[in-house]
Amino acid sequence: MKRAYICSRVSCDDSKCIDSTVAYAKFIYDKCKMIPVMSQLYSLIFNDLNDKFQKEIGMSIRLGNILNSDEVWVFGETLTDTMQDELTKSKGLNRDIHFIDDYQCREILKRYGGKEIEEENS
Questions:
Q1: Weakest mean pLDDT among 27-31, 36-40, 101-105, 111-115
Q2: Dihedral pair phi/psi, residue 82, rounded to 5°
Q3: Distance CA 104, CA 88 (A)
């Protein structure tokens, strides 16, 4: 089974981001028949917003997860700096990249139980 790296926002309220990431993972598994790979859960462990060293650890984890994935799925039209960095690395590794727009994200969240992330929290 192929593996899909989930690229989505984490620079918001952790519970909303984790809930939305879990919904995206369910979509990847249910509809795309792929194993979801999620680095967002590490935001609960590492303080990558305020600690440069912990941010580097987080990026190393994300890069390792991208390396171990066949495709990258980008959820949402608003890209954080971290998401842009993940995309740059994914392109450099020649990963297939799929973009899911905001409308599709809302539909996925409705179906799989995630919470929509408001724009002001990006």
A1: 111-115
A2: -65, -45
A3: 23
pLDDT in tens, 7-36: 998 655 566 677 888 999 999 999 999 999
Strand partners, 85: none
Q: What is the pTM of this model?
A: 0.86
Cα 93 to chain centroid distance, Å, stands at: 17
What tokens were used for 36? 């979801």
Strands 35-38 and 71-75, sheet pairing: unpaired
Whether the Cβ atoms of residue 37 and residue 69 lie closer than 8 Å to each other: yes
Query: Is 5 a residue whose pLDDT tops 80?
Result: yes
Starting at the edge strand found earlier in the chain, the sheet holding 3-7 runs 35-38, 3-7, 71-75, 96-100
Name the token pair of 77.
Answer: 């039209």
**How far apart are the C-alpha atoms of 92 and 17, rounded to whole Å?**
26
